[in-house]
Amino acid sequence: MKKLIDEYPSLIRIWLGNQLYIAVTDPELVKKVLQSPKTIEKGDVYRFVRPWLGKGLILGPAATWRVHRKLIAPTFNMRILESFIEVFARQSEILVREMEVELGGNEFDVLDYVARCVLDILCETAMGVPSTVQTRRDSPYLNAVKTVEDTIFTRMFKVWLHPDIIFYSTSLGAKQKNCLRYLHNYTDDVIREKRTQLNNFSDLKNTESSENSKLSRKAFLDLLIELSNEEMKFSNEELREEVDTMMGAGHETSASLATFAILMLANFPEIQQKCYDELCEIFGDEVNEQTQITRDDIRRMEYLERVIKETARLFPVGPILVRNVTDDLDIGKCVLPKGSSVIIPLIELHRRADLWTNPFEFDPDRFLPDEVAKRHPYSYIPFSAGPRNCIGSQFAMMSMKILLSTVLRKYILQKDLKIRIQDMRLTTYLILKSVNPIRVKILRRQIMK
Questions:
Q1: Whole-angstrom distance, CA of residue 382 vs CA of residue 389
Q2: Fewer CB atoms inside 10 A, N or C side of the chain?
């Protein structure tokens, strides 16, 4: 598909069997597609993920999605997210302590460390349940997630495995069933533990608590449990599916993007130095100390935010969006017929030479306000766009800024050999990943005097 898009202009017809796909890379046409109520439904290709995530926010049909999105949106209020800053910072400090065994050594696979950190962050903030995955040597949850990803990816590209009756009679289908059983049981355990905490909350109501701690009780899972208990708007199955969506999709996307950002910082030491200089301005003499990060500190990390955005441009975690066309849609140049599907390849959109000067150059200053104003707003949509955009984008940005700044305050990131972005081999296991492990080495930063 990438080769076809490179060779032909936007609006490419691609037939896979009897299914028509139209690839769109023109920002204005992308806008028309993503804003239309006729393309709210996710593509049929996502059906292979439903045994894992069910009909949660990401995969749910439009009618279900509209109701759940409205109910869940308050969970991602900025005031609530800011109440989790302490958790982001504490788990990031655990990350740098766990990475300390790699000091002065050879390059190591950084994704494993980051994935564990992100999972602990997600459990404690979005779920409201503490987690200690970082300090364990082995994580059955992460192992099960990887296995499920592998089986889904394999099934997608082997047409003879598409029918359920065939897939579930194979060893691959049996393996997926076993892993999903574990993951769903894990989610059920999280829900049960949270219910117990909420039931016991009345015993703690006389203890001293801040406004932030009160807000934290309105986290993702808290809201869903309250709704399922009081208004019965969520069935038990819907409750689990939304939790699975947050645990599965939220964890993988944040871990992948943060790992690519670490690679870019190691690969471009001059950009890493600018990030560290910014941190020195924010924290002063305490830049290398374990000082509490505040919301004002996060807001001042402007250059680091641009680094994250540039990373998301080159390595969008969801490299391809697919939407079903539920009714004929006139987008100006043509009419997209009912029953077809639209492909929006973000990785191509974000690397188009006519939209981005020197598209393979890593340049965070592309996201200075003046530069952003020059571009079409739909030329950069790493978290999708329109009414069905990613609800957790602010959560991801805040957690990544704290994670990356904590790492940079402790360590210098290095690569033995600089890599060219255009030479990187990428694949999509539901989300974008590097074919080869992302490896960096770390050195301890000198304490400022």
A1: 9
A2: C
Do 272 and 330 belong together in one domain? no
Each residue's pLDDT tens digit, 412-439: 999 999 999 999 999 887 789 999 999 9
For the chain, what is the mean pLDDT?
88
Distance CA 108, CA 329 (A): 49
User: What's the half-sphere exposure (Cβ side, CA atoms, 13 Å) at 421?
Assistant: 21
Give the angle 332-333-336 at the CA atoms, nearest 5°.
85
Residue 267 domain-assigned (yes or no): yes
pLDDT, tens only, 194-247: 777 776 764 554 444 444 444 444 567 777 777 766 555 677 788 889 888 888
Joined together, the tokens standing for residue 215 give 């807000």
Residue 297 neighbours by CB distance under 10 Å: 18
Whole-prediction pTM = 0.91
Q: What is the DSSP string of 186-242?
A: HHHHHHHHHHHHHHHGGGGTTS---HHHHHHTTSHHHHHHHHHHHT--S-HHHHHHH
What residues pair up with 426 in beta bridges, in sequence order? 434
Q: Provide DSSP, 335-346.
A: EEPTT-EEEEEH
In a domain, 291, yes or no: yes
Question: Dihedral through CA 119, CA 123, CA 124, CA 129, nearest 10?
Answer: -140
Same domain, 197 and 270: yes
In a domain, 43, yes or no: no
The Cα 340–Cα 362 span in angstroms is 36
Distance CA 256, CA 426 (A): 12
What is the C-alpha separation between 117 and 130, in angstroms, rounded?
Answer: 12
| Residue-range definition of the domain harbouring residue 222 | 48-202+211-310+382-444
Residue 390 annotated as lining a ligand binding site:
yes
Domain count, the chain: 2
Q: Is residue 412 within 8 Å of 443, Cβ to Cβ?
A: yes
Tokens found for residue 144: 């099960």
Strand 341-345 relative to strand 19-23: parallel, antiparallel, unpaired? parallel
CA distance 159 to 163: 8
Kindly report, residue by residue over 260-298, the tens digit of the pLDDT.
999 999 999 999 999 999 999 999 988 888 788 999 999
CATH classification of the domain holding 374 = 3.30.43.20
* Residues 151 and 231 occupy one common structural domain: yes
